[in-house]
Amino acid sequence: MKRLHAKSRPVDERDRRQARYARVAAKLPGVAGSKPPPASSPIPAPPVLNGAASTRMSELQRARLLTAAVQVVSEVGYRGMSTARVSTRAGVSRKTFYDLFIDREDCFLAAFDDTVSRIAAVATPAFEDEGRWREGVRAGLSSVLQFIGDEPVSGSLVVIDALGAGPRVLERRAQWLATLSSIVDQGRSEVKPGREPPPLTADGVVGAVLSVLHARLLEREDGSPVELLNPLMAVIVLPYLGPAAAKKELQRPAPKTRRTPPRPVRSPLDDLDGRITYRTLRVLAAVIALPGGSNREIAEHAGITDPGQISKLLSRLQELGLTHNQGRGHAKGERNIWTLTVKGHEVEQATQAQTAP
Known about the structure:
Arc Repressor Mutant, subunit A, Tetracycline Repressor, domain 2, 16 helices, 357 residues
């Protein structure tokens, strides 16, 4: 009788885990009949993705956030850019945002650096391939104008929106302008001794060119910025090579404008139905790493310990058309076999292109 009236022992977390293990094990082939871990054994830490897969996840999320930041700034400016707006546009959680960036200024700075590096990637080789300063500046400037014509939103971020950003962005912009001024000031090497322009000439030339681009981007009129090449070159060479050289730049054949496909501003996952969480991406990476893997194998690789949760995440990827289950399921007593679909491969390839350096 005493046993009937005794207070039941409180169930702790370890007891709940053991009970859940027993319920799940009874349904899984190859696990049924196995003993749960002893109550005295420590609860194992969940496995994590390997370094390459984890880095890949962070790169993808970062790329999505940078793309979203550029889009948000183009619509509402830096003042209207908030972490909530950027996270929502990117389809990630605010926690993921703060895992990657300190604040909105840090995110904008990363987008600024990304855009400047892509401009430099096309302008620097064009400048260096020419033997003389004048032709090198012309080739580099032409590449910059072509870039802005193809990606006006990114051009506005660097030329216009950066002016209203935080002090760290303004400091980085000043460094960028100093680099441009040093390139322009190389024109001194072609000036006759005793006729060198004042030391601040290059700064004034760069400021004048940016002022023209600033006005053109604000107008948002049809027409390629490449049309400005001859007039801007006249402004650049005038203080170094004189009026005759400036006149020749104005009289040079009009540069040909070409329309190149703009860099995709949408993430490859943006068109999927619904928000893709960081955990969902971990599961997708696990399917990529373990083609033909079972629920349990994919869960272990993705670091997910809850069988119910891995089932939901895999079903979510299947609903999105990214994965396919080639197994017959537990109803037939057979394991699940998860592989990527054609759409899944396309998303994977697009993700590789987007997160590549």
